[in-house]
Amino acid sequence: MTTLAPQATAPQTATGPIDTRSALRLITCGSVDDGKSTLIGRLLVDSKAVLQDHLAGVQRHGQTDLALLTDGLSAEREQGITIDVAYRYFSTEARKFIIGDAPGHEQYTRNMVTAASSADAAVVLVDATKLAWADAALKLLPQTRRHSLLLKLLRVPSVVFAINKLDAVDDSTVAFEHIGAALREFAAQAGIPVTAVVPISALKGWNVVDASEQAGWCGYSGPTLLEILEGLPVTPADSTLPFAFAVQWVEKFSSSADTSQGRRVFWGRVATGGVQAGQGVRIMPNGQTAVVAQVLNHVRQPQAVLAGHSAGIVLDREVDVSRGDWLLADGEGEALSGSREIRATVAWLDDETLVPGRVYWALHGHRWVKAKIKRIVHRLDIHTLAEEDANQLEPNAIGHIELTLQEPLATLPFAQSRALGSLVLVDTASHRTAGALLVQ
User: CA-CA 20 to 30 A from 345: which of 66, 92, 270, 317?
Assistant: First the structure.
């Protein structure tokens, strides 16, 4: 993907114009103290999304501390670190944004994974002052590499590298050139599509919303970070795949006078494909079939609904369907037939080491099933990107594993569908989120 440039008309892709009317969900990530919270604060302030009384409340020693605009927990303010993901909303004349501030500490990687799993774009912050920027063969920080790899695994469509604090180095042009080359080399090795690499100073506001006061700063003459974000696409819905729908809530009609259809509405979000009246469906896991009698949109109006939108589905007869069940397109072959054996990439988030033989709860959509770790295939070395033989995975490691499920689940590879290809592992005793699974 090439670096975006300012455009007078709507941005285009190979398949048509980019949807810039929908709100863009993005996160900032990277290593500790790279300036993620400060960057979001700068975006909010310079886009006029912060009221004066709010700004007055984030003063320290007579100076505005932009990071405090997102660090909302008392522990975050006391320790000066980001612990949980904080979402903020702002808009420009061109677009609306939902932006999440992900923590940089390794122990909070699980929070970053949660935010990235639904993001349309990510800004990876890189602190120039922490790197040997004068060395053309410099090494990136481990957490920068880890977060970038997770963005690829989580299928975040657009990744922007923002090299921060270049105003604090002796030669910003050389630093930007060397760090940018290291980022592009790493991204090429890892197969991470890079939308842009942009030099910024979040503290001073250079190249964030407005261009740098110094013309040609760092030898860069491209768009500002905000201009890049305004032109990014949202994640397209999986509307071309077979229909799949996870039942989240079952509502019973107040009146059962109409006997031509079932007496319950099954509410949830269409994961893939689309649904309309007259369509045949199969219920997972009991295998019964039925015909869709009526489809309601999110405001209860009869209407066909596509992937990514909420729907209420009424079947033509009474069928045993409960929260957690899946409604699948009937007659779509073996693609969504369900399996009890899964190969997956796992981002291990628990404090306890992952070992074969352990049993966890696996959450797929709204369905819970028991899952046993059959085998650990490989561990991914975040420094060399090599696959290493392993018999366990330490906290925050990334690896490939095989699972055996107590009951079959209708999954697709994560590369095809975010909704059908993702699972969460939960510890059966502590109920902590233990791992994020991406089906291979």
Answer: 270
Residue type at position 212: S
The one-letter amino acid code at 436 reads A
Amino acid at 230: E
The closest of 155, 36, 49 to 95, measured between CA atoms, is 49
Give the number of other Cβ atoms within 10 Å of residue 153's Cβ. 20
Look at residue 258 in the predicted model and tell me its pLDDT.
66
Report the first-to-last Cα separation within the chain, whole angstroms: 24
What distance in Å separates the CA atoms of residue 374 and residue 358, rounded to the nearest whole number?
8
CA-to-CA distance for 105 and 112, rounded, in angstroms? 10
Q: Which H helix or E strand runs over 318?
A: none
Q: What is the pLDDT of residues 185-234, one digit of tens each?
A: 999 998 998 999 999 998 888 999 888 777 778 989 899 999 999 999 98
Q: What are 266's strand-pairing partners?
A: 250, 313
Cα gap 119→31, rounded to integer Å: 18
Q: Per the structure block, which two tokens stand in for 279? A: 């369509």
Q: Which of 365, 351, 320 is nearest to 429 (CA)?
A: 351
Phi-psi region of 129 (alpha: psi -120 to 50; beta: other; left: phi over 0): alpha
How far, in Å, CA of 345 to CA of 363, rounded?
A: 15
What's the whole-model pTM score? 0.76
Question: What is the per-residue pLDDT for 169?
Answer: 92
- Whether the CB-CB separation of 179 and 164 falls below 8 Å is answered with no
Cβ burial of 69 (10 Å; 0-12, 13-18, 19+) is buried
Contact 193, 26 (CB under 8 A): no
Tell which residue, 294, 291, 250, 280, has the closest CA to residue 268.
Answer: 250
Euclidean distance between CA atoms 47 and 92, whole angstroms: 7
- The CA–CA distances, whole Å, from 429 to 351, 432, 434 equal 14, 8, 11
Please give the Cα distance from 205 to 421 (Å, whole number).
39
Max Cα separation, the chain?
Answer: 79
